[in-house]
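Bench notes, bay 3.
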Amino acid sequence: MPRPTPFHPRTAELCTSLAYKEWAGCYAVCRYDTYHDREYYALRHQATLMDATPLYKYEVRGANAVDLLSRVMVRNFAKHKVGRVSYVCWCDRDGKVLDDGTVTKLDEEHFRVTSADPSLAWLERNARGLDVTITDVSREIAALALQGPLSRDMLRPVVGAALDDLAFFRAMPVEYAVAGRKVPGIVTRTGYTGDLGYELWMANDDALLVYDAVMESGAPLGLLPMGLDALDVARVEAGFVLASVEYTSARSAFIEKQKSTPYELAFDWMVQLNRGPFIGQDALVAEKQSGPSRRLVGLEVDWNEFEAIYEGFGLVPHLTTETCRLGVPLYQSGRQVGYATSRTWSPMLKKYLALGTVEASAANVGTKLEIEVTCEYERHLATARVSPMPFFDPERKKA
């Protein structure tokens, strides 16, 4: 049975839909209203506040903390400065992705790792012989995601003017001004929406105080709580992959075909090969030389063709407002060359978008593919062109 997060007393009061799902063993709100539309538009025009506590969180401390993380991940942390946050993935010895997450350098010998799946055993197994301590703080630290164009204005009264100097993918210690006193925490300029945003970290005992302070500060500017349904639309617009949807962890894959490498997931930019040995290095060096056999791509589905399929049955085109995660085939010249994983209608861009994996020869931007569309139990095809990602990339995200 799922457990409540420290924010549950507040989110339960606001969740009139009673729509929940389990996220890492915790209750997670899908949407607060009957539909998630209000939350989505608040995210893109004002700001939203989401409970991100279920993320797995690990504190890595010690003289060899840098060595451990550089050994198990595809990025080298030797030159990272205090306050830097990195998005990164880690692989098995065959170069197949196990998970992805963030690494924040909190002090010279202190890092915080977040992940989608439990990663404590993996870290501990590779820490043998190193001067390092790994602590699972997943259920000791609460987290909030404050995202949207007005998020900085809403958060400034709670953490102070220093927020204005916090750069993209950077972290800073703060004292949250709550209930007439200050409580310690950390703010990172990160998020999973592709917009301007912050993630707030604090001890469980302070969670409700911080939640109330942020909601009070943001209320005049239109702050709304947000669930996972609106987030799912936003992350597709941002071109962000979701574990167990865009890729299957090598740890849980049944066959080799289900596994993915960083290059297949378009994570080329995070792989640093020319350094000391790390897990999966030899396999990734070889793949870098030969090139990946397939690639993750963004797709724009031709709306006129999609609409025509439904009109052929005397129906109006139908899409759910939620992101669809049911995989469908992708074709080129009558031959299947891949599959689409996440599909959604973008209210901001007024486009039908998808993320998919295709053969490398079909991954170039502008390539014309066909996506399977089922209508009235019949299978049809509509054009889907490979598009640059992210689909939605506002300047305010990094400004």
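Next record in the batch:
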Amino acid sequence: MALRALYAFEMSGTPIERIVDEIVLQADEDEPSKEFATRLLNKCTENQSEVEQLIIKQAHNWDFARIAILDKLIMRICISEFLYFEDIPPKVSIDEAIEVSKKYSTEKSSVFINGILDGILAHLQKNGLLKKSGRGLE
């Protein structure tokens, strides 16, 4: 649901509030899922520049503009979970990103995404930028 909404936002330029109203809040999902998707989308859009800079720095030999749009969006979602969702273990975020990429993106996307996200996670941990709390996350 969040990927579908973020894709609609990217492709249409429609304000995220309207995308949330039309895609997330109208979805046949439970309220906690809708609330999580809304919060995730807001973090993805509010912090897009910061998150994309992390991708650009890690994707050394790749022109950012040539990375598949779905791969960028999947990574933005995952990195937003790293940075702004203290209760989600980073490995869970990466595993989910890989599974989503296998379902919705190109044949080689999962390997590419895994490599970029592993590098970003290592960078965040090394620089003390990963703030996780809760059982098993400290």
